[in-house]
Please model this.
Amino acid sequence: MFDNLNAHNGRDRARRDGASQQSAEPLTDREVPIGVSRTPASVQAWLDGEADESSIQGAEARHVEFWARVNAETTHRRQVRTPVEVQQRIMAALPADAPAAAVTPWYRKDISMSSAAAVAAAASLLAVGAAVGAALRQR
Model:
């Protein structure tokens, strides 16, 4: 039910306890606040294709440089292909009796229900219908 995510299984506990007693330095918070930086409207217009890159000047140029690098990196990563030997190893690892088509969708499967369940479903639908009818009659 639960996976043991501790790779050491307690073997390192004695060493950790000794190390924590040896260091008398107080622990410091290593969280670094990140300054909120919003992309200027002119850069947003450039990203949307509504403005030219040459129309952006000053401090906004660093945003353009950042997004140009992101675009270049994503273009490069789109062109990266999996090596043939990796594809062959993946295909070889698939079982031979793997189904070629997807499993039958739920709406095409046969429904099987015991007679007791069918009677209970019919009685509950009848009760719901009677309750709705009574509520509508009182209006």
